[in-house]
Amino acid sequence: MDFGIAGRTALVCGASKGLGLGCAQALVREGVNVIIVARGAEALQAAARSLQAMAAESAAGAAPPSVRHVAADITTEAGRAAVFAQQQDFDIVVTNAGGPPPGDFRDWDRKAWVAALDANMLTPIELIKATVDGMAQRGYGRIVNITSSSVKSPIDILGLSNGARSGLTGFVAGVARSAIAAQGVTINNLLPGAFDTDRLRHAMEAGAKKTGRGFDALYEARRNGIPARRFGTPAEFGEVCAFLCSMQAAYLTGQNILLDGGAYPGTF
Fold first, then answer.
1. Domain locations in the chain?
2. Degrees to nearest 5, angle at CA 243 with 10 and 44
3. What DSSP string runs through 45-73?
4. Which residue from 28, 21, 22, 25 is spatially nearest to 7, judged by alpha carbons?
5. 3-state class of 149 per DSSP?
6. Residue 149 in contact with residue 192, Cβ under 8 Å?
7. What is the DSSP letter of 193?
8. 8 Å CB contact between 33 and 57
9. What is the pTM assigned to this prediction?
10. Is 9-194+233-259 in CATH node 3.40.30.10?
């Protein structure tokens, strides 16, 4: 299926690896020009090279989509300024930032809460604010926020993430249904469950050290607890992101799309 977005330009955050990179890959395959952002310059450069090779291969003789990268912390004003110095207007924005650390809410002070809100609520709002009016003027725009399945099914040790991401979810529920909805702009949230990424493996390694259980045993137990009996892949996550950016998804807005292999047990 042709998603009808070839030639558009996307900003993809946290795109040096994992789910962000999966989104960038899917968009490049659709012919979208991308600017990818992440803090780690070395990993980001490697990701950009792989995307450029993918773009050249998928172009089949035509001009390939462009791939640019900005090594910056998108959760800071300076990081966002560095991105917008490269380009002001985007047709597609994929917001993504690493989740805050787990822990006991009794141990979190104001500084910890502000850091979580900055990364997982206020940064996406700043990116929406900076780009949505231009999208509306041009009659097309897609904003996809990578949040977490914990928005639907909170995890007790992830209170910082539960709170900050739920705040973003409430904000999006309102702004997605404002006047921009009639101007060709959609805003949706993608809620990943357990995906086979470095972040998942690092969390399991920490869990293995804390509990004294072997990594393989924890890995198998977690995987077998998912009805699909497997972890998701960044590639399939990216394909769903690309669909949300498509012309076919123009009537889909203000929604929370849960990708978790059936792990969430609720009806709604």
1. 9-194+233-259, 196-231
2. 40
3. HHHHHHHHHHHHHHHTTSPPPPEEEEES-
4. 28
5. helix
6. yes
7. -
8. no
9. 0.95
10. no
Tokens representing residue 201 in the block: 């493996």
Structure tokens at 151: 């928005």
Burial of residue 148, with CB atoms counted within 10 A of its CB: 0-12 exposed, 13-18 middle, 19 or more buried: buried
Tens of pLDDT, residue by residue, the chain (268 residues): 899 999 999 999 999 999 999 999 999 999 999 999 999 999 999 999 999 999 998 877 678 999 999 999 999 999 999 999 999 999 999 999 988 888 899 999 999 999 999 999 999 999 999 999 999 999 999 999 999 999 999 988 889 999 999 999 999 999 999 999 999 999 999 999 999 988 888 777 877 777 788 888 888 988 999 999 999 999 999 999 999 999 999 999 999 999 999 999 999 8
For 265, the token pair is 């047990």
